[in-house]
Design goal:
The protein is α+β, with helices and mostly antiparallel strands. It is built from 5 helices and 8 strands, in the order ββαβββαααβββα. The strands form 3 sheets. Strands 5-6-7-8 form a 4-stranded mixed sheet. Strands 1-2 form a two-stranded antiparallel sheet. A hairpin with a 2-residue loop joins strand 7 and strand 8. The longest helix has 20 residues.
Length: 197
Amino acid sequence: YEVGRVFRNEGVSNRHNPEFTLLEFYEAYANLEDMMTVVEGMFRTVAQEVFGTTIVTIPIEDGEIQIDFAQAWRRLDMLSAIEERSGIPQSALKEFKTAKAAMKKVGLPTDKENNLGGIIEKLLEHFVEPTLVEPTFVIGYPIETSPLAKKDPHRAGFTRRFEGYVLRREVCNAFSEINDPIDQRERFEHQLGQRAQ
């Protein structure tokens, strides 16, 4: 593992900085579910060490909320959550054209969208993230926005990746590393093609 400064050229907002400190770790012979267990354990341990309890009281805009980090985190499928919160059926999110039309129908701008994965993540950000108060893992990210993640063998177009959320904020990002050199080359070539356009 490593704790260090990282840089992302993704702009500045109250949710992301271009420079921040990150804990990055890898574990041989572990899968995505194992990583979720490690993350839950880390948050539980840190809460216990810092606060003397796994139950943390956090002030929010209209009072306070208690989060118990001893509890297992909720696992939430990305497309199911989008459908539940936005009303957009998962079938509309299988192709770029229908996803863009669905995004427009719910009143979100589409002029900067150029791939299916980007649309899906924008819908997640707009409809789902504001509801993720309790510790939650969102699972199943699109391939277009996960260039280094292993493909999900059971779901075409998606990867073995999750992001963890607490109090509506992303607190972690993890994925099973891609280990197929042909797949990796194809994805890099696709990215270069998009950049050239």
